[in-house]
Amino acid sequence: MPTTALRVELGRRSGPGVPDADASALLLVGGKVRSDADFVFYNQAAHSSGAVRHEGKRETGGTVTDTLFVDLARVEPAVETVILAASADGGTFGQVPGLHIEVKDAARGATVARFDSTGATVETAFVLGEFYRRQGAWKFRAVGQGYDTGLHGLATDYGITVDEPQQPAPPAPAAPPPPAAPPVTAAPPAPQAPPVSLSKVTLTKAAPSVSLTKQGGTSGVMRVNLNWQVRKQFSGWAAKLGRPTALHNDLDLDLCALYELADGSKGVIQSLGNAFGALRHPPYIHLDGDDRTGAVDSGENLTINLDHQRAFRRILVFVTIYEGARSFADLHATVTLSPQHGAPIDFSLDECTVPSTVCALALITHTGNDLIVQREARYLVPERGVSPQRTVDHAYGWGMNWTPGRK
């Protein structure tokens, strides 16, 4: 490897009936992970060392790319190998055209290595390549070995403890109670990390909604994250951090939410006007901050308190361009909703082909006893002199009064 800051892109062609493919990485010592923390994938997006980070998906020109950022300089000395893998969701890799892995210099964008996988059949997980140490230097090797047991089989083969669905045990036959034993004082068991959950829900145009109630995700907090990558707005990538360096003005995207509560009160959550909301009292929605990087481990974040779900009637999560661009045309964004309990929900935004400065992302509605998340991914074009906020309000019939504001 000519440099240590690398961007690893798992690519495939898109099309009707093509299964989704997810990138993952495992950091190995002696051929196994040291703990579940050495597994980086969509549910565990960054390694604690900062050496590997999952950056999410984008679609350009009929090709879907899932990206990992790898900084080999930050890989701990004990780690000998970084496995680069893929798992298929909704089919086998024999149904995935154009499957490949490409390693790029993160600072310059130049391709360092590429491997095209052409022999897949029934496999649902693939080790496409690996970084390994040899005589003090890092090298890349193409692998191309598959599993027909999916991400579960791949993970457990390298030592990951996977959260298994619990099956009810058959009732035991009645037995007489055992004789009483003298009390024994024992030390409490050492706390253990929970097993890794591999479940997720990806919303698409064909399947745009999911019930949080049926997923068991209606308590605790839910984090809504927007992360993005911008190609044409930036001159290159900072080698150390792997983040964009702006040519002129930084792109500033603002994650926002319109809310309507069960008592009829309405409002907006946004950084404009410092309307950051509150988590422990109405509206039970809080904007964490104002981010300009778009990185998957930060980005723009909203937190929703689902312990008060009955207070909600509907919540519309949307994003506006505050400055730095005139449309979303070069935005490659992923939206992830992570309930404290239940599977994470994600979806990618479609290519923007209109001069839009506001995009409706997701609509959360509480109807009866059901809490539904609906993928919107709807680009809106404000009329001249009309703000993005007023535009999205009109499109969804919120009926609020708007005045100018600033950060």
UniProtKB/TrEMBL annotation:
Protein name: TerD domain-containing protein
Family to which this protein belongs: Belongs to the CAPAB/TerDEXZ family.
Residue ranges with Pro residues bias: 167-194
Chain positions covered by the region annotation Disordered: 161-198
Residues covered by the TerD domain: 6-158
Organism superkingdom: Bacteria
InterPro entries: Stress/Tellurium_Resist, Tellurite_resistance_TerA, TerD
Gene3D superfamilies (alphabetical): sav2460 like domains
Pfam entry (one): TerD
